[in-house]
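DM from R.C. (forwarded with permission)

"hey, sorry to bug you on a friday — could you get me a structure for this? deadline for the figure draft is monday and I only need the backbone to look sensible"
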Amino acid sequence: PDPSGATYSRRALTGDLGVLFNAGGRFSPYARYGRSYRHPNLEEMLFAGPATAGSIAPNVKVAPETGNNVAAGATFRLSQVSGGMYVFVNQYKDFVAQDLVVATTPAGPLAQATNYADVRIGGLEVSADSPLVLAQGVLTLRASGAFTRGTITKGVNPLDGRSLDGAPADNITPVKVLGSARWTRHTGRWW
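My reply, with the result:
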């Protein structure tokens, strides 16, 4: 940055708009649209020095990442099971890559935060809980899963100038499955 000081002014309109039908009912569908905004953090803009894989150069010109986010889904509540299913599509403009290698030097790779590309991340999430009331307490079984995919919708590789349109976006976990069991005493003193 400029040693005599600098000002970086950025503005964005953010917020969410959603509709929930049959709130509190056995089956409650919803839809939501939101505008997201992520300003680069101080490390991404100002840090210079050694890092895990080479060195990092500052980039005060990295722009904020903005997104249009759409989600729809439904929750359900039956006598023994509750849960939901949700789909989402997030379209990001000026997606910030934190450690993109921008040059190879004799000392190793040089990385910096940059507005890598426009990226779409979409997926499906499911979850279910089932409490089982037993003589000594409650056993709650939980399961959830997420399936996600990231795609670069518009972008150029800064090293060689080739188009990245349609390529998979890095660092997107494609599948995540979780399961758990929780035992709770009726007294609530421990679980």
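R.C.: lifesaver. The longest strand covers residues 108-133.
me: no worries. DSSP finds one helix and nine strands in the chain.
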